Amino acid sequence: MNLTVTTDYLDALSYEIRGAAMDVYNFFGPGLLESIYEKAMIEELKLREIKVESQVPVAVKYKGIPICSDYRLDLLVDDNIILELKSVDELSSIHYKQLRTYLKLMNKPLGWLINFNEDDFAHGMMKVPNRFYHQ
Fold first, then answer.
1. Lower CB density within 10 Å: C or N end of the chain?
2. CB burial class (10 A; 0-12, 13-18, 19+) of residue 96?
3. How far apart are CA 104 and CA 37, in angstroms?
4. What burial class does residue 119 get, using C-beta atoms within 10 Å of its C-beta: 0-12 exposed, 13-18 middle, 19+ buried?
5. pTM higher than 0.85, yes or no?
6. Given a cut of 50, is residue 2 above it in pLDDT?
7. What is the pLDDT of residues 16-67, one digit of tens each?
8. 14 phi and psi angles, rounded to 5 deg
9. Total structural domains in the chain?
């Protein structure tokens, strides 16, 4: 993206992402596979006319040398926000570390970790800023 990414822009996009996730959760509830929630999130974001890409390759470089492209992030929203979707009993530190690493490798300003397998869905969404982000 060539435009400067502002906090207001990220906040507005995050609002839409949270709304889309709530709609998907309210429709299905907990207990399905992550892949179902991912497909539903794609459709919900498209209904909201928000650009979304799925299973985006994450290039891993060592000192500028590409060494791996086996990793894939779940969703990239408007080329700025990474969504890592889960359907697990409980989020663990490895889930946060994975998202933080993707944010750093992809140089994206913000990520959301969303666990659809929560009885109280408000506890299943975590905003994760990229402290290494540079425009």
1. C
2. middle
3. 25
4. exposed
5. yes
6. no
7. 999 999 999 999 999 999 999 999 999 999 999 999 999 999 989 999 899 9
8. -65, -40
9. 1
Residue 45 belongs to some domain of the structure: yes
> Comparing C-alpha atoms, which of 71, 67, 127, 134 is closest to residue 107?
134
The Cα-based distances of 76 to 18, 65, 105 in angstroms read 14, 24, 13
Task: Say how far apart CA 55 and CA 77 lie, in whole Å.
Answer: 12
Q: How confident is the model at residue 1 (pLDDT cuts 50, 70, 90)?
A: very low
Helix (H) / strand (E) element for 117: namely none
At 3, is the pLDDT very low, low, confident or very high (cuts 50, 70, 90)?
Answer: low
Q: What sign does the CA torsion over 99, 112, 110, 66 have?
A: positive
For the record, the structure tokens of 10 come out as 């990220």
